């Protein structure tokens, strides 16, 4: 089944819901980065929420999001587009921590304390960057805090990645619910109780329920579906892009690369390799301004 996201309003247009199923997307990221279970859950949650957040913007706009914690995972970076495409990288994919008491994957300890940075490219002259401190490192709570602090929007975020014993992703998804201006206390109270009753998103999907079922449950069957969009892990790297990056290097560095008789460049997002021969490097240098 293809991964996708749904956008809806609910509770008489007092609430906006973004919900997504991302099992294939997260499994693709796991295969690329060869993550161990806790790193899979952390990066998967980050990719899922970033994909949904990017859908709040236009197709030509994009987000660059970074979680920089002091836990063993280190830094994670995600690029997300309004088209539903995301790609990411993780500093240390070899993290497998379980919570001593609850027995589940301990994403909070793996991420640690630090900051969430969000940069928006809205096709204007300047990009806009805002940062908030991580609340727990569990990703969902950290993004809820970001929306309240940086966007001044009361928001509930839930994310889940269920990893099988063979380390593959069995179920993944999440939702972002934003309370719109003028929402009644009755609606807010009902919404809080409903979110609690729905439970973990990954378990919801693992029980065979659909994304439409999730939105209906969250909205108490009041949802008005606005849009459905595919979401996927997709890297847009190409050799021309890396050649452009090489052309920005200084002359001395280019000479050193040329002396090495060619180089191999590896994309951090998809691990695709690009080879540049000595002749290609000479041509790139000759075209430098």
In short:
The protein has helices at 23-33, 37-54, 107-111, 140-150, 185-198, 201-206, 211-219, 239-247, 251-259, 278-286, and strands at 4-10, 15-21, 62-69, 75-81, 85-90, 114-121, 128-133, 155-163, 169-179, 224-230, 232-233, 263-266, 273-276. The protein folds into 2 domains: 4-233, Hsp33 domain, CATH 3.55.30; 239-286, CBS domain Like, CATH 3.90.1280. The chain has 10 helices and 13 strands.
Question: CATH homologous superfamily of the largest domain?
Answer: Hsp33 domain
Strand order in space, largest sheet: 7-6-3-4-5-11
Number of helices: 10
The number of E-state strands comes to 13
Residue share in β-strands: 25-35%
Could you name the ranges where pLDDT drops below 50 across 5 or more consecutive residues?
Answer: none
| Name given to the CATH architecture of the largest domain | 3-Layer(bab) Sandwich
Number of domains: 2
* Structural shape: globular
Q: How is the main sheet built?
A: 6 strands, mixed
What is the name of the CATH topology of the largest domain? Hsp33 domain
The CATH class of the largest domain is Alpha Beta
Helix content: 25-40%
Distance between the termini: 49 Å
């Amino acid at each position: 089944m293809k991964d996708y996201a749904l956008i809806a309003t609910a509770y008489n247009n007092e609430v906006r819901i973004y919900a997504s199923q991302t099992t294939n997307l997260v499994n693709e990221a796991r295969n690329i980065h060869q993550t161990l279970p806790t790193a899979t859950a952390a990066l998967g949650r980050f990719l899922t929420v970033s994909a949904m957040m990017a859908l709040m913007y236009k197709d030509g706009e994009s987000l660059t999001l970074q979680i920089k914690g002091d836990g063993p995972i280190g830094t994670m970076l995600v690029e997300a587009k309004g088209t539903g495409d995301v790609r990411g990288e993780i500093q240390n994919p070899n993290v497998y921590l379980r919570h001593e008491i609850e027995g589940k994957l301990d994403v909070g300890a793996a991420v640690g304390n630090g900051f969430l940075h969000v940069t928006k490219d809205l096709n204007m002259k300047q990009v806009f960057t805002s940062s908030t401190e991580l609340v727990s490192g569990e990703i969902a709570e950290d993004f809820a805090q970001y929306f309240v602090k940086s966007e001044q929007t009361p928001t509930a975020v839930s994310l889940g990645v269920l990893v099988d014993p063979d380390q593959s992703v069995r179920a993944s998804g999440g939702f972002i619910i934003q309370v719109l201006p003028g929402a009644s206390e009755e609606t807010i109270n009902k919404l809080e109780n409903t979110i609690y009753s729905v439970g973990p998103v990954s378990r919801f999907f693992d029980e065979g329920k659909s994304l439409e079922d999730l939105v209906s449950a969250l909205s108490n069957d009041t949802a008005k579906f606005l849009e459905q969009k595919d979401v996927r892990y997709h890297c847009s790297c190409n050799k021309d892009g890396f050649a452009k990056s090489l052309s920005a290097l200084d002359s001395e560095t280019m000479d050193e690369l040329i002396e090495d008789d060619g180089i191999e460049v590896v994309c951090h997002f998809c691990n695709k390799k690009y080879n540049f021969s000595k002749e290609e490097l000479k041509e790139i240098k000759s075209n430098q301004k």
